[in-house]
Amino acid sequence: MIKSIKTPLTPEIIDDLKAGDKVLITGIIYSARDAAHKRLYEMIKKGEELPVDIKGQIIYYAGPCPAKPGTVIGSAGPTTSGRMDPYTPLLIEKGLKGMIGKGLRSKEVVDAIITYKAVYFAAIGGAGALLADTIKKAEVVAFPELGPEAIYEFHVEDFPAIVVIDKDGNDLYKTGKENYRKINLL
User: Fold this and answer.
1) Neighbouring C-beta atoms of residue 145, cutoff 10 Å
2) What pLDDT was estimated at residue 186?
3) 163 - beta bridge partners?
4) 184: which residues sit within 8 A by CB, 6+ positions away?
5) Does the pLDDT value for residue 84 go beyond 50?
6) Which of 82, 122, 180, 185 has minimal CB crowding within 10 Å?
7) How far is residue 149's CA from residue 151's CA, in Å, rounded to a whole number?
8) Is 37 a catalytic residue?
9) What are 26's strand-pairing partners?
10) How far apart are the first and last CA of the chain?
11) Of the candidates 157, 158, 127, which has an alpha carbon nearest to the alpha carbon of residue 62?
C-alpha cells in the first residue's frame, strides 16, 4: 500500500508513518545540501531568523541541475544524507519534521528524530530525472550565490519516497538486513 501525504507534516501524519512505508508526497518541500545546511546552522547559533520557516517542513537533500527549455527543473536526485548529519539535529530541534535523501544517518540524527518526532525518507538514487518530473514549480528562496546548492522551494505532486527511519527510530536499513539474513540462512 502506498500512502499519500501532504506537507507540511503534522504530528498525525508523522504518527501514521512506519519504517518501510511507501509514500507519495504532495506540497512544498525545500532542497538544501551541505553549504546551505552549514549556513542555516550558523544562523540558528547566532540567533538569526532563517530565510525559510522550517517548522513542519521537509528538506530534500538535492542540488538540482539547471532546467532545460520547457522544463521546471533539471535532474534532481538525492545526495548522501550523512553529509548533513553535523547540522541536522539542531534543525530538527528547531522544527524540521522530514528529510529526504539516501544512505545511513548518525546516532545523533536518529536520537533527534526520536526526541522531536520527525521522519527520514529515502528517494531512489540514480532516478533524478524521474523525480524531477514530480516537481511542478521550483524557485530559489535562499542563498542564490550557492548555485545548485541554494535553497529551492519545490512544489511537488506525488513525489515517491520510502520511510527509512520513523519517529520511533525504527530503521529500515537495519531491519531490512536482519530480515534478509533470516530468510537467506544456509
Assistant:
1) 8
2) 45
3) 121
4) none
5) yes
6) 185
7) 6
8) yes
9) 6
10) 31
11) 127
